[in-house]
Amino acid sequence: MKRCAWTDNYKPNPLMTAYHDKEWGKPLHDDQSLFELLSLEMFQAGLSWETVLNKRAAFQLAFHDFDIITVAQMTDEQLEALLQNPAIIRNRMKVYACRTNAQEILKIQAAFGSFDTYIWSFADGKTIDHQIIDPSQIPAQNQLSQHISKVMKKRGFKFIGPTIIYSYLQAAGLINDHEVACEFRI
Fold it and tell me: Which tens digits make up the pLDDT trace of 23-42?
């Protein structure tokens, strides 16, 4: 079975294979799932995606299945308690940024109706297909991710640099960077 070349680095991990095959690059339109993915991408900064995926269930438990309202209302005491949880990535700035980002998503929902409407508006509601032939064609960031990062930072989002946003856009299906030969390409 032909997959994107990046999966070759993770063959021993069935979580990574399943993530590539069933989730990565599939257009996502559910606000809670979009928030979860944004949060996981944020926690991944400086680490490997494999590390985050291996801790995903613990993150879901710690952050109430990424229920946006519940996370937005988490207290400092609750966040401090998470910093003692060895099952998650215990970076204070990232843990607190998760709550901040949930609060910002609530504001976007109030203004735009949904986070889905907001984030997909940057791609005019359609997946941007890069027609990747060789994995070297995939950038770490592009003008779109730089723009979205800048706009979201102005709104108050944290830990959402252009590289994180590019990975997010790929993962959520706004950008299709599956290689053309990949059998899981949409």
Answer: 999 999 999 999 999 999 99
